[in-house]
Amino acid sequence: MGLLKHGKRIRASSHLDKVDAVMALGGDGTMLRAVRMLEGRDIPVIGLNLGALGFLTSVVEDELDRALKCLISGKYETSSRAMADAVVERRGKIVLTQRALNDVVVSCGPSKRVVVLGLAIDGDKVTSYVCDGLIVSTPTGSTGHSLSAGGPILTPETQAFVVSLICPHTLSSRPLVVPDRSEIVVSIEDVSGKIRFSIDGQISENLHEGDKVKITRSAVSVRFIHLPGHSYFSVLRKKLHWSGSNV
Asked: Which of 51, 104, 116, 245 could disulfide-pair with 190, CB 3.0 to 4.6 Å?
């Protein structure tokens, strides 16, 4: 993500120290890229939804003028969103570190062959799963990939992670909700093809058999800007088409 100056593209991150707030124009993917661009800086972010679903972009297009006035006057609210740190270990050495706002995904990728993934929480072995993949999501990410895999919705202030499975080969497998003070370790126990490690759908790397992905709550969080009167449950009702019961 960059800016244009005199017709030339420049790195937006080089100007962030002079920025009071960031407005992302697009869908949830644009919002996630904007958060990644901040690189941990404490700069609040607001999203203008120009995409399809837009759980993270709380402002619709016809509210743009109001949003700009609120930003200029400082009359807005913020909510803090937890993030997750993910570390990949290979033969006892750290080979990759990333930070996620939505989720960390370990999956079979394009090979479409099942993998065997071990799961441990705070050093306690949960089980090994034969599946297409596993998702560890933050409360913010619980309305994303995890939701489509059957995971629950967590309100943004919930201090927990959701562990959801992608196409597990057993009917007894269910999502887990664990405290975000926990260390979650996903081990690549058996794989016959390529396996992918994905952060927020933005960063993707290959993993190898024997690798371990360690996930903890990050010390870094991000602040979302909301216009006065914003309601999280109103967003859910609208995006998920909740209309209540007719009974």
From this structure: 116
Q: Report whether 206 contacts 96 (CB < 8 A).
A: no
- Taking alpha carbons only, the member of 63, 58, 65 closest to residue 24 is 58
* Predicted structure pTM score: 0.91
The C-alpha R_g of the chain, in whole angstroms, comes to 19
CB 191 within 8 A of CB 115: yes
Domains assigned to the chain:
2-76+227-239 (3.40.50.10330), 83-219 (2.60.200.30)
Q: What is the mean pLDDT of the chain?
A: 91
Let me know: does 1 contact 16? Beta carbons within 8 Å. no
Backbone φ and ψ of 237, nearest 5°:
-60, -40
What distance in Å separates the CA atoms of residue 160 and residue 154, rounded to the nearest whole number?
Answer: 8
Position of tokens 């089980």?
A: 127
Q: Kind and range of the H or E element at 92?
A: none
Contact 197, 96 (CB under 8 A): yes
Model confidence at 6: pLDDT above 50: no
Cα(72)–Cα(78) distance, integer angstroms: 15
One of 17, 20, 28, 211 is an active-site residue; which one?
28
Query: Is residue 65 annotated as part of the catalytic site, yes or no?
Result: no
Sequence-separated (6 or more) residues with CB below 8 Å from residue 72: none
Copy the structure tokens of residue 48: 């203008």
